[in-house]
Amino acid sequence: MLTPTRQWFRARHGIGLTEPPRSQAFCNYTLLQHDVFVVEDAIVDGRFRDNPLVTGEPHIRFYAGVPVHDADGHRLGGLCVIDRVARAFDARQRRQLSVLGEAVSEKIRLRLVDRRAKWMGATL
Length: 124
Description:
The chain is an alpha+beta fold. The protein contains 3 helices and 3 strands, in the order αβαββα. β2 and β3 form a beta hairpin. It is globular, with a radius of gyration of 16 Å. The protein starts with 26 loop residues before the first helix and ends with a helix.
């Protein structure tokens, strides 16, 4: 998820990074997309080659992300895959990440519906 000043990893595996500055977040680009955003080799991508997350720890080379949104369609952040190795990302993998991103977005929508229902039940 993103705040105005930082990126916050809600869940992570294999990376020690927890809250990099928003100015360094690959996710900023993901939020501008309607579908999957891929950087197959960050070290040769002009947008990222000087990024401290590429030139230093965690030495990101590959990134693929999809926007996660709430029930009103507001983009909250992204679901992403990061690697220290450059790699290709084919159409099947893009579809899989897109499906996972939609599942996360749906979970957020369902959680909001559940909270509203509980709140309405408490006020009756």
